Amino acid sequence: MSALSGIRRRIQFPDVMGVMGSWWDRTPWYGRWALYVLLIIGAFLLPSSSIGSFMTPESDWASVLFYPIGIYVLLAIGLNVVVGQAGLLDLGYVAFFAIGSYALAVIATKHGWGFWEILPVGIIIAAAAGLILGTPTLRLRGDYLAIVTLGFGEIIRITANNLNYTGGPRGISPIPHPPSDPSVEVGGVKIFRYGVLDARPYYYLLVTAIIVVIIIVKRLEKSRVGRSWAAIREDEDAAELMGVPTFRFKIVSFVMGASIGGLAGVIFAAQTTSITPVNFPFILSALILCAVVLGGSGNLLGVILGAFLIAWLPERFRGFEQYRVLVFGAALVIMMIVRPEGLLPSRQRRAELAEGTGGMGSLGGETGAVAGQRVEIDEEPVSGHPPEVLAGRDEREAGG
Amino acid sequence: MWNDFTQQFWSSTIDGLTNGAIYGLVAMGYTLVYGVLRLINFAHSEVFMIGTFAALGALTLFGIDSPQSGLALVGVLLLMTLVAMAASGGTAVLLERVAYRPLRKRGASRLAALISAIGAAFFLQEVFAIWQGRDQLSIPRVMNKDVWFNIGSGQVRNDKVLVIVAAIVMMLLLDRFVNTTRLGRGIRATAQDPDTAVLMGVNIDRIVLTTFLLGGILAGLAAALYGVFFELTQYNVGFLLGIKAFTAAVLGGIGNIRGALIGGLVLGLIENYGASIFGTQWLDVVAFSVLVLVLMFRPTGILGENLQRARV
Amino acid sequence: MRRAYSRGLVAAAAASALLLSACGGGNDNGSSSGSGGSSGGGTVTIGFMGAQTGPNAQLGINISNGVELAIEQHNAKSGVKQVKLTKYDTQGDPTQATNQAKKAVSDKVVAIVGPAFSGESKTADPIFEEAGIPNVSPSATAVSLAANGWKFWHRVLANDDVQGPGDADFIAKTLNAKTAAVIDDQSEYGKGLADAVRKQLATDGVKVAVNDSINPDASSFSSTVNKVKPANPDVVFFGGYYSAAGKLVKQLKDGGVQGTFMSGDGTLDAQFINGGGAAANGALLSCTCSSAVGSTDPAVTKFASDYKAKFNVDPATYSAEGFDAANAIMQAIDAGKTDPADINDFVTKIDFKGVSKQIKFDDKGELANDLLFITEVKNGKLAFLGDTSKAKPSA
Questions:
Q1: In 3D, which of B53, B55, B130, B44 has the Cα closest to residue B94?
Q2: Residues of chain C with pLDDT > 70: what percent?
Q3: Fewest beta carbons within 10 Å, which of A90, B10, B18, C253?
Q4: In this complex, is the C-beta atom of A287 within 8 Å of any C-beta atom belonging to chain C?
Q5: pLDDT at residue A360, rounded to an integer
Q6: Is C26's Cβ below 8 Å from some Cβ in A?
Q7: Window 53-112 of A, Cβ < 8 Å to B
Q8: Rounded-to-integer distance, Cα B41 and Cα B116, Å
Q9: What is the rounded average pLDDT of the residues C260-281?
């Protein structure tokens, strides 16, 4: 396959994020805030039927905006904290989503609490689950963590399926709506009337939640916590040596991610009014992971875009049903070969990933060309003849 | 509960070992690739699946649809095995070339390789789903299932013995190969330190190819045995099995060949014992819980890591 | 310094390919699409909601075929309002069902045949109820659906409260079993059915020696076989679907379990025989749906041959129910009703002989009669035995 690598060396991908990034750096604070406000207004205006007729002609656009698009976006932001920021491979993220949903469902139906009272409780329960899962397992190395988190996701789903308390395979329904206030009307839409017919009030609720979460995550990223995560991500041993309490910060990222997953679960259950274990399969964890990596893990804008695409496109192209997953699989492979850092990687992450150091390190078995070195290796090294790679040895990262 | 356990002890043990042997064969493939590349080859389960379809195809091609005996039986089994090995091995090599080598050459992160693996798995599954349909396909019975003798509640049946013996033999062969041949030395060297291995004259690309090929061949054997034992296949037959096999590999110590088989057997036993005590609906919960417990106290698995120390 | 953008194009192409894909549902607007208004223009649109793609799509397709046939025959009559069909593919997924239900409401369909599965009924029916759209399900058998006080919901087959106890009574009285093993597949349908059987067996005085729950996607059910074998039950009842049932019956028989294997309508499919092989022979399968194949009633044989002529396969599970559900709605349309509320009133009071059974609803929307039918697997084929009072298995 050296032909392919040859082609790849000769051409360059347009550096979108680099250009945007330098423009962003030059914009003064009021410019940035104006853009934020515009984006927020745009998000609230999104569920219009004219946009809907283009975006999802075969489904209800406002419903699709809530689920899968909105929920996937929130889940991707949460998983990004774990995978993208701290560099931990979590294959069972759906567990926290399920815990949040079931928390709302069980407490609302069995104890009669309202949505707003259960919301913080659901988040706390999910966070506790993150703590419980993380404490024994975050000392394990990356790939062990992967299978353990996968197992945890399955344990949650199967337990919910087996216990009568959570309704067994029948699940829990009907879940009461949040308290409505039908008197408030903005632009012809009753924004606080939570019912089954109109998904828009839920969508606005979800957008508000996303905005709050983004603010929190961004502040964290720029704080000491975020810097510690970056250190852990790049080289955990070095970070530990430099005095970063790696275990503690890994737990923080896990708990943070779990809380966001729980939040998404609570809002999801409220809208869908009926949940069963079938709603929380392993494949959803895999999809969110794909969304994060595809979009550009570590970059908030990237993961939002990745989640949006992964959620919207199947709805948009319903007509191609038979071949959808086939094309998805092929596209994942191609995207990774051509642009493994994702669609919109942050500049920092791109540098890391180009060196093969960010996020779990590089693949083993790749010598000389490790760490961004582009050197041809002789197919048949004659023994006793050291390859040219020796020249690049000092810059190299011990991969894996 | 405990009554059930003791009453079903022997049947659980025999069936646990049989299921575990299949997990172990597939797990050895995962462990080899991981040991050399540090890659969780998510698509390995599809390599297995393709082997089962190939075995079925071989039977259909030669019009074999009824139980055989004696020399004809041996011939049929060999046919299924060799065809499945060829198909799985070929798929594994193709996978390496198309989905992983370009990433290796770029020094891309393991996360990217993981996503590529997931994509490849989806792709291969769907190819067969579209080509062969999504319903189960049955594989004709080629071996009459004779019970040789009973140990307590357990039935020692010819196909169960075949599976267990084949897995153990294969593990020993692989172990021998990795520890004594030149290629095997190359594999161990690459697993230990790829940079030094290159200095010592190891051709990394060829090693990686061999690793994938070996993993594929093991999966092919597992596929043929699966076809004889379960008599069915389906486009998604690899999915659940793959997760279990990878769990088994981790349980035994990822990167460790003997560990993979031991992990597989242990997993099979735990599943069956757990199911006899708590009910079959809890068997996955039991299995994953044991995994977490084992890893907590022995973070590198039962036999520990390291391909180059496969000789425990 | 930028060189060729080919790689960028490749990535963009891959991204667009990605756009075209990923897991999820699909919508096949087969025979017609788009929305017809509920009034005006002389055409009226009915919706079908159920799985057209994805796992278990076959059950949805059986129904939509029956509906299509009914509509085609209706439109061919002279002087009637033309009816159009829009199919809403949910893949049997409850969350997709809500999206599709809202779409159906905004498309202004006058009535729905479906939703096909119980899970999607739970999420979609509240939407139809609030929007006032009558829906007639040909296949959703969950008991809880009738307890919601819905005015617009109906189903043309008996619920699992009929199938479960009916099966248990059959096991106790016709099969004369003394001990039984009851296994479910942890699904809503399978466990619901199995639990109903368990309860009634206890009342009928049959000892349930073994209870177990399998994962239908697993290959090996060794632990279940190892539980059942020592108990040596007369009957093994399985609540679940055909692909797991085939695997299970084969492993049971190979494991030396000799009891009769019995299951419900989820197993009633030729694929069960395919998967179970020789072990499937002698299995008994129940359904509150009747079989159009092998009937002596001329109206039913005509339906079966029309179906075969149009689709090249025999009508299968729920095809006849789909046909009857569609006809119930179209009778309302023929009586001049085009408003969903009026159609609902008409359908609620309907009473006619369909090809599956007598179609008449009680005040909750349930079917007024509650017959259970048994099919036996004989020599690798499904042989319809008739309802539980008449069925005599060969073993």
A1: B44
A2: 88
A3: B10
A4: yes
A5: 43
A6: yes
A7: 83, 89
A8: 9
A9: 90
Note if the pTM is more than 0.80: yes
More confident residue, A184 or A116: A116
Report the relative pairing of strands C351-353 and C358-360 from DSSP bridges. Answer: antiparallel
State the chains in contact with A (3 or more Cβ–Cβ pairs under 8 Å): B, C
pLDDT of C246 reads: 93
- Please tell me the distance from the alpha carbon of residue C383 to that of residue A358, in angstroms, as a whole number: 63
**What is the C-alpha radius of gyration for chain B, rounded to an integer number of angstroms?**
19
The predicted pLDDT at position A177 comes to 85
Report whether pLDDT(C192) > 90. Answer: no
- 3-state per-residue secondary structure call for B66-116: CCECHHHHHHHHHHHHHHHHHHHHHHHHHHHHHHHHHHHHHCCEHHHHHHH
Does the structure show a pLDDT above 60 at A186? yes
In the predicted model, residues of chain B with pLDDT beneath 70 are: 1, 305-312
Residue in chain C nearest A9 by alpha carbon = C7
Residue C5 has pLDDT above 60, yes or no: no
Rg over CA atoms, chain A:
23
State how far the Cα of B55 lies from the Cα of B231, in Å rounded to an integer. 11
Put simply, whether C10 touches A (Cβ < 8 Å) is yes
- Position C383 scores a pLDDT of 85
User: Which residues, in sequence order, are CB contacts of A351 under 8 Å at separation 6+?
Assistant: none
Q: Rounded to the nearest 5 degrees, what angle is found at the Cα of B29, between the Cα atoms of B127 and A4?
A: 60
Burial of B309 by CB count in 10 Å (0-12 exposed, 13-18 middle, 19+ buried)? middle
Contact yes or no for C86/C47 (Cβ under 8 A)? yes
DSSP state of A83: I
CB contact under 8 A, A11 and C5: yes
- pLDDT, tens only, C97-154: 888 998 899 889 999 998 988 888 888 998 999 899 999 999 888 778 888 889 999 9
Residues of C within 8 A of B276 (CB-CB) are: 223, 226-227
In which residue are the tokens 């339906």 written? C303
- Confidence at A17, pLDDT banded by 50, 70, 90: low
* DSSP-derived secondary structure letter, A81: I
- In this prediction the ipTM stands at 0.89
Interatomic CA distance for residues C288 and C372, integer angstroms: 5
- Window 65-94 of A, Cβ < 8 Å to C: 67-68
Q: Which amino acid is at B82?
A: L
Interface of B with A in 14-43 (CB under 8 A): 34, 36-40
SS3 label, residue A66: helix
pLDDT reading at A365 higher than 60: no
| Bridge partner list, C86 | C47
Any A CB within 8 A of C155 CB = no
Taking the mean position of all CA atoms in its chain, how far away is CA A395? Answer: 32
Is a pLDDT exceeding 80 seen at residue C27? no
CB pairs A-C closer than 8 Å = 176
Cβ-based neighbours of B80, under 8 Å, separated by 6 or more: B55, B58, B59, B142, B224, B227, B228
Strand, coil or helix: A57: coil
Contact C247, C221 (CB under 8 A): yes
